[in-house]
Design brief:
- The chain has about 120 residues and is α+β, with helices and mostly antiparallel strands.
- The protein is built from three helices and nine strands.
- The chain has one domain: Nuclear Transport Factor 2, Chain: A, CATH 3.10.450.
- A hairpin with a 2-residue loop joins β6 and β7.
Length: about 120
Amino acid sequence: MDQQDAVKQYAHAWGLVGEDSIRAALVECWAEDGSYVDPTTDPVVGADGLARHIAGFQEQFPGASLAPTSGLDGHHLVGRFSWVMSSPSPIVVDEVPLGHSIPGQDFVEFGEDGKIRRIVGFFG
């Protein structure tokens, strides 16, 4: 898989509803032992773990989506990209209202096959 396409598929999964739909999207771009971590979660591993995390995100923020706001800036098997999370409802984290959108950046590692092996996400 092309690295840019893997990032697009990953971002697409964040806008899906239901663990099965999310998992089906992730299987195309996520390494079997791929790991994900951001400030809101301990590391999750595999497409199943990430699908559960994203489904929980969708329950917490119904109708929210994540869209890349930059292309993949990468070299070798690593890269980074910026994104924005948008929600029709106000985003409130730890009782702090953040508006209807928040930016972020993900750092990503790829396998030789182009699938995502690791993402470390940051807000702001």
